[in-house]
């Protein structure tokens, strides 16, 4: 795809993503004298967990912002290390050869060829359609935390948090600390399943204690905890104003009894996270489906090597595990790479492996504790499943039955996943519908294929041209300077080829 | 692209106190949203400035349903918050920092 004029840079180690896993990997590599190139899609490093305030914003001591800034600052320090080439606002959009990738940045495009690669691509919210989920004011748990940490803003003053998993508690506690009235937290999982995991959870007592602290603070502030509850619907005139919750049945649907209704000005929905493994899939890495890791993830060995020589994976993009596991994996993958590049890593690898094993047991126990007995089915037939192309649950279900669960034909018939989000916001819901309608297990469905570009990019990048602001007929030459990212006109591309 | 008048100006129902206490924000800079001037804090995202101004609808879906949509994932994945910026085209409001004098249009996308 790239033109002959596209420059190719040869690098020793390439890290994709500057979140906790990528930053720790970079720090470990420079510690061993390995120069690294860090490519990150965001304009500031830190990923989602260490998301930074805009430049020019300043935190005063004792602020109401819940974040781990000393740790973030320490992790981000590596980006200014002389051995690090840091490329922010840069999208790796395709694989152009063996460990060779094309990238598009704001000001330049090019190609990188690496001897060793660490994929640390992170995660995004797993969508969970329910009636009213497209209403403005209904936001994802990640969206809530990014508003808080990235913009020092809360989504509302009276908020309900619904979902499944540990991120729910983090979101609710962050809101509480920022002075928001968190009316209720509706966790879909029952507490009984979590209690059974207690012995394994005690392997990492600090994390267990943190979760209990968040819960205690919320309870003390008057937040109602509803375990085994899910959202029935969000209602409002142009913006969410009311939310109804109800207990979940064993079939993953809400029951008709014990309904609770809250007046809100924002609703936070966090039904788990999905590993952002699109790039791994596009590269053709061997993938495996593991519900305790969040879905499709690259297969990895004990050294975190994937199925492709010289390519390693670390962090949530290879299985949801949170910041502690992500940093441990980032370090472990980097030690593997350093050893491959002929550096002496001494006994560090063994101690890193032990820490990884302990955190991994905790991760699996936590996931098992939060795991639901049946996939959630909160949408009604008329509920939108594909937000980009406005495809309803009923149309996806009908197509699933007609085409016997063939994802490619469902896509062709409905346009599901053909919008700008490239399926990130609908594929897991679609898989759940197919599994239900066709009576098959989720892990028997093929992983969605990914075609380049991995993210929507400007046409100029495809041509290998230097990017400038897009020009439109309605703009005169005296127009104000362009925004911080190139225009993102959607391309008709999809995860399924 | 259709260019219907955006809902921004009409639906202004500001919820006060959404800024987190103890954070010094960037200096106020004026931006134009659907023809109305609003104050934004230098450095913040377009989404943040709009949300702070009480605006929740960032776009209207292009199909017959013409549904309101807004900020959702906050990390550039969902494209629900796409707005039009003069001189730049369609951008994700959650990932685009405001700049002085920026002219933004909501509406059908």
Assembly form of the protein: heterodimer
How many strand units of chain B? 8
Structural class of chain A: alpha/beta
The helical percent of chain A reads 25-40%
Largest sheet of chain B: 5 strands, mixed
The number of helical runs of chain A is 14
Instruction: Give the N-terminus to C-terminus distance of chain A in angstroms.
Output: 17 Å
Could you give a short account of the major beta sheet of chain A? 7 strands, mixed
**How many beta-strand runs of chain A?**
22
* Rounded Rg of chain B: 13 Å
Question: What does the average pLDDT of chain A come to?
Answer: 90
How far the N terminus sits from the C terminus of chain B, by CA atoms, comes to 7 Å
Largest interface: A-B, 74 and 62 residues
Poorly predicted regions of chain A: 466-497
Instruction: Report strand order across the widest sheet of chain B.
Output: 3-2-8-6-7
Order of helices and strands of chain B: EEEHEEEEE
- How large a portion of the residues of chain B is in β-strands, by DSSP E? 25-35%
Model regions low in confidence, pLDDT < 50 over at least 5 residues of chain B: 1-14
Residue share in helices of chain B?
Answer: under 10%
Shape category of chain B: globular
Average pLDDT of chain B works out at 86
What does this structure look like?
By secondary structure, chain A is α/β, with parallel strands linked by helices. Chain A contains 14 helices and 22 strands. In chain A, strands 1, 2, 4, 5, 6, 7 and 20 form a 7-stranded mixed beta sheet that branches. In chain A, strands 9-16-10-11-12 form a 5-stranded parallel beta sheet. Chain A has a 3-stranded antiparallel beta sheet with strand order 13-14-15, with no helix packed on it. Chain A is globular. The model of chain A is unreliable at 466-497 (pLDDT under 50). The termini of chain B are close together. Classes of the chains: A alpha/beta (497), B mainly beta (109). At the A-B interface, strand 3, strand 9 and helix 3 of A face strand 1, helix 1, strand 5 and strand 7 of B.
